[in-house]
Design a protein that fits this description.
By secondary structure, this protein is of the alpha/beta class. The protein has 9 helices and 30 strands. It is globular. The structure holds 4-nitrophenyl 6-deoxy-alpha-L-galactopyranoside. The site of 4-nitrophenyl 6-deoxy-alpha-L-galactopyranoside has 10 residues, from loops.
Length: 573
Amino acid sequence: MNTAAKTRQTRRDRERIAWWEEARFGMFIHWGVYAIPAGKWKDKAIEGIGEWIMRRAEIPAEEYEQLASQFNPIKFDADAVAKLARDAGMKYLVITAKHHDGFAMYNSPCSDYDIVDATPYGKDIMADLSKACQKYGIRLCFYYSQDQDWHDPNASGNNWDFDPATKDFAYYLENKAKPQVRELLTQYGPIGLIWFDTPVSISLKQSQSLSRLVHGLQPDCLVSGRVGNGVGDYGSLGDNQIPTGRLEGYWETPATLNDTWGYKTDDHNWKSVKTLLHLLVELTSKGVNYLLNIGPRADGSVPTPSIDRLRAIGEWMKINGEAIYGSKATPYPYEFPWGGITQKNNRLYLLFTRWPGEDFILLGLRNRVAKATLLADKSAHIDVSQTRDSDCDILTLRLPECPDPNVSVIALDLDGAPDVDQTALQQTDGSITMIASMTNLHTPESGTQIRIGESGVIEDWFDTSNWIDCDFKVSEPGTFEVRVHTSALRRAREWTGGHEVRVDIAGSTFRKTITPDAWSDSPKAQYFPEASTVIGQVQLDEPGLYNIEVRAKAINKESRAGLSVSAISLMRE
Ligand code: JFZ
């Protein structure tokens, strides 16, 4: 069962997740003794994310654990960290209690390998953080690596010190992981969620037993989907992953401010405030929580670029937060190049990452719009006019000057719940976009069946007897360039093409090899590359409803992703 498909919820499930759905935006904190090497080991730069240095450099556990004796974060200020989360507009805070390196960043009675017993600092930062979070109204949550533990011979992940053949994961689970989860849920007051991670060895029964343990100790505490095996109260997308189109169910994306979770001296690749706000729009408009990470240094201080960015987001949230908190995903089945849409009660929020200029047209909204309000300047006048043309509803807004070069928000008061045409309509720029979740999937009785994966992209297309089709509506006829878009997936981050497709549209048939004619520069493609392949040009002479079919004539056997179609697009020339 896919966690996110957990739409078959009990009333208890709905009660438990209500605060999290309202929150929409949280702080992740990756902090541990790995902040001491900070990406370097014996003067050598170690590739990859900072908290993985023990594994990437295959540091013997006996050597790595000496770091604890150097860990003395006298600059750590729990109050300042919780206040930073509050000032950023974040409503929950997830901190690494025990990451894959096995070191407990809290007072763990069941292990001496912890911040109180093994470091000169000797204080329990989680006790301080618990008080500070209560003071600022932030829900305290813990990240716990329940499967990988490179300090323990019975956990997964450390094959350079321990023989995998002798591991007894059940022993580890019962004698370290569960006791520590129990400690976290009994020592620090109410906990919002336990963020489990990398379920590599854990069985379904073991994932279920962990979830029962959490709910048994704190019934209101959520369990993240990375507890494994489709268990959990919500789903975790891949790191920094943005889905294609809106998602059903409950999802969260963990994301970095630069490219590492744990602090690295040399990672200065900080995302701009504009990019971070665009990511917030991308995720919230698709119904996905944004869990944005900071990585404190070994001395406990928080890098200034992190602080500056989070404070700037907080300033934006003060003005526009109503479009984020408690909002639900867009009622539209496709995406827009100008930004994203959220909805709450009988309001639509248009979050512009690109200001359209004087006139803005939105198609397919059947509601009457009573009022349009610019959140950054509620006194600004916005002319609203609505017409209908060739059975398509047209909303036109006459816009004021753009108030915020990063993201500006317009709220539309509707005459009822949003009612939107679900057809792929031709937009004012001539484009028509059919994202994967809008297509009809045709699967064979036997063989691998295609499906819409957790990130909204078609997955498991390895069998040529699968095919897809989609209707779309043309309002301005002409010659259209047809493209098929394919994306990397969580399980196959490298984009692969080489598949042979056949496309049938308006009586024309095209055959093409999937190659990257263009790469997407959208935020979602930063960590998961997406390419489009030009299929050909087609003449559509009449306005009206059309259909397009895509078949696979050959699948590249080298590809782990298969024919991972994310969208089909037409652009009028
Ligand atoms: C995991 C950790 O290994 C990492 O150190 C960090 O804590 C991150 C938030 O979570 O990394 C993952 C786990 C799962 C995926 C990617 C990175 N995934 O499923 O794509």
